């Protein structure tokens, strides 16, 4: 059994006194994958942003417990929140937009690592290349000098995952990471995430039942009036997936 790294108990999210989500309960352990699914518009992406406190001040988050490694997230100062976001990485549904169009991939990686590490140029390039290899890239020098508009959707998605992993997060949250990808690239992402989850906790927001069957250990189903937490087998039995 892995170690519990994220615990959410009776979490609710409201916007200007209107409740959007409530009664959210789950735990996440290292080496496990939680899939979050539900109909469009029910609040899956909202929840993913709430988990790293990226919602603006008009939103209000309440919980009986909302902790990362035993530390209450809602009580963190702004400085501590920045530390948290280096440990919980979020790859958004439109992750390609996080790749600045005026910077090639190498410059973007260098900017991130110069800000957060003491590695020299040779060291951080070697470090980044190790993540490119994990994400299934072959011609690493070509990717290093490529601009986002030169990448396919699948390559840009994998590059975004690589950037999210540079800080060695303990939790990776992926929002519809296989959306708009063909079957080959979807399978490639699934295999990559299977390998990555050995060392981290993984949360995946998805509509894709094949993705859930292939990767999830537990499933949180969001509905308009409730949220239900299942083991994978229980979910597959109830929803005939």
TrEMBL record:
Q: Which GO terms describe its cellular component?
A: plasma membrane
Q: What is its main location?
A: membrane
Q: How does it sit in the membrane?
A: Peripheral membrane protein
Localization recorded for this chain is: Cell inner membrane
Read off the lineage from the record. Answer: Bacteria, Pseudomonadati, Campylobacterota, Epsilonproteobacteria, Campylobacterales
Q: Which SMART domains match?
A: AAA
**Keywords recorded for this protein, A-Z:** ATP-binding, Cell membrane, Membrane, Nucleotide-binding, Transport
The domain of life is Bacteria
Q: Which organism is it from?
A: Campylobacter estrildidarum
Task: Name the Gene3D superfamilies for this protein.
Answer: P-loop containing nucleotide triphosphate hydrolases
Matches recorded under InterPro entries: AAA+_ATPase, ABC_Ni/Peptide_Import, ABC_transporter-like_ATP-bd, ABC_transporter-like_CS, P-loop_NTPase
Instruction: Report domain ABC transporter positions.
Output: 6-240
Report if keyword ATP-binding is assigned. yes
**What is the protein named?**
ABC transporter ATP-binding protein
Q: Which family does it belong to?
A: Belongs to the ABC transporter superfamily.
**What is a single molecular function from GO for this protein?**
ATP binding
């Amino acid at each position: 059994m892995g170690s519990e790294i994220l615990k959410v108990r009776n979490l609710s999210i409201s916007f200007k006194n209107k409740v959007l989500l409530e009664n959210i309960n789950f735990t996440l352990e290292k080496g496990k994958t939680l899939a979050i699914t539900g109909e469009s518009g029910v609040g899956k992406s909202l929840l993913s942003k709430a988990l790293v406190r990226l919602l603006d001040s008009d939103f209000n988050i309440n919980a009986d417990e909302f902790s990362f490694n035993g530390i209450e997230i809602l009580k963190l100062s702004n400085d501590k929140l920045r530390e948290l976001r280096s440990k919980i990485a979020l790859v958004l549904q439109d992750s390609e937009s996080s790749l600045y169009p005026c910077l090639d991939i190498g410059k973007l990686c260098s900017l991130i690592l110069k800000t957060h590490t003491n590695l020299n140029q040779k060291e951080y390039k070697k470090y980044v290349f190790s993540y490119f290899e994990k994400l299934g890239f072959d011609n690493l020098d070509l990717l290093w000098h490529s601009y986002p508009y030169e990448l396919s959707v699948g390559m840009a998605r994998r590059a975004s995952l690589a950037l999210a992993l540079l800080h060695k997060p303990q939790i990776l949250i992926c929002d519809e990471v296989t959306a708009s990808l063909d079957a080959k690239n979807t399978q490639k992402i699934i295999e990559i995430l299977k390998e990555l989850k050995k060392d981290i906790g993984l949360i995946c927001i998805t509509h894709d039942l094949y993705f859930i069957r292939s990767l999830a250990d537990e499933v949180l189903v969001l509905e308009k009036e409730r949220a239900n937490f299942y083991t994978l087998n229980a979910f597959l039995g109830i929803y005939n997936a």
